[in-house]
Each structure stands twice: as C-alpha cells, then as structure tokens.
Design a protein that fits this description.
The chain has 208 residues and is of the alpha/beta class. Helices cover 49% and strands 16% of the residues. It is built from six helices and seven strands. The strands form two sheets. It has a five-stranded mixed beta sheet.
C-alpha cells in the first residue's frame, strides 16, 4: 500500500474534527498525574530525610545522655592532671572539701567574667574547706593558659582538660561549673555565667 492509499484508508472525509478542548483537558490530566507523582516523590524524600535527621539527633542525644554524669549526688569522676606549676591535681584528694570545678577557656568571654568572683570565693572560704579548680579547655593547653594564669594572678590551680574528661562531665558549652560536696558527689551544676550570690549561698549551705 502506497502513502496515498494509506491516507485514503484513514477516511479524511469523515466527520472527525480536532477537539482542542479535549486535547487541553488530556494534557492537563497528564500534567496533574505527573505533578502528583512528583509531589509524592518529594514528600517521600522529605520524610526519609526527616527520619534520618531525627535518628541522628536521637543518636546524638542518646550518646550525650549516656555519657553525662551530672545528676545530683552522683559521684564526680576522678581525674589526675598537672597544673601550670607541674603539680598533679587529683580530684579525689580534695575529699572532705567543697570543690568548685569550673570548665573554661581563655577565649571564652563569659568564663573570664567569672574568674574574679571565683578568686574571691577561694580567698573567702579556703579556711573553711572550700577549693576552686579550673579546667581549661584551650586547644593549645598551657601555651595560652600559663600567661593568662600569671597575668590574672589566679589563686587557684588550673589544669588542662581532655576530650575524655569533657565527655564524662558532659561539657557541651562553656563556662560550666559544678559544686562537689565533701563526700565527692555532685551537688550543683551551672551552665553559663553563674549568678555569684546564688552560687555563694550554695557553697555556704554545703560548708555548714
């Protein structure tokens, strides 16, 4: 069959006429189905991403919660670290004293605001069995800490904290301050710059 015969077989003289409206509706329907499929795909991808983010967040929180020991009256994890003079500071050797354990860094503005107050507390209550220990978290250790310690004439020992120590104490931001009672248990926990009068009241309560 040649082309002309094929065209004749299509009966061009039939009553069929183009229907633009129907063609438009068909096109809109196909586009609608495609859009719906795209939306479902996007929603599914978003749901998967949300689940992955939630799982990661839960995993992070789970690890953090498992590692934290900052609950009232739990034993404070012991450590033995050299201070800026080379003397070893062992937390357990301060048993029967009330200890203020402060995690800080020389680059932390809020941390530096607290230091004069801690020095004052050390002077005021040292004879009553109160001690301050600073745990500096500077990456370069005593390279930055020793000049700072000397310039500020700090009257309490400062050690350099490790990632492991930060982990067991749940240090996630600084400054972070704990009060440890005479039996070596965590009595109070403060995240951020402390309110000095409130802190002093807590110390007096623990000393009495």
């Amino acid at each position: 069959m040649n082309v002309d015969a094929a065209l004749d077989a299509l009966n061009p003289d039939a009553e069929w006429q183009p229907d633009p409206g129907r063609a438009l509706r068909d096109l809109q329907e196909r586009n609608s189905r495609a859009s719906a499929l795209t939306r479902r795909s996007m929603l599914a991808a978003a749901a998967v991403a949300a689940c992955l983010c939630m799982a990661a967040l839960m995993e992070f929180r789970g690890v953090s919660a498992a590692d934290r020991v900052l609950k009232d009256r739990q034993p404070a994890p012991d450590f033995a670290l050299p201070d800026s003079t080379g003397a070893v500071i062992r937390l357990s050797s301060y048993r029967h004293n009330v200890v203020l354990l402060n995690f800080w860094a020389t680059w932390c503005g809020g941390c530096k605001m607290e230091i004069p107050g801690f020095m004052g507390l050390q002077s005021e209550y040292k004879d009553r069995g109160f001690r301050v220990i600073g745990v500096a978290m500077d990456d370069d250790g005593f390279h930055s800490v020793t000049p700072f310690f000397q310039a500020w004439k700090m009257n309490y020992p400062v050690v350099i904290g490790s990632a492991r120590l930060a982990k067991v104490y749940g240090v996630e931001a600084m400054p972070e301050t704990l009060l440890i009672d005479g039996s070596g248990r965590i009595a109070a926990f403060h995240l951020g710059v402390v309110d000095l009068p409130s802190l002093e009241r807590e110390i007096r309560t623990l000393l009495n």
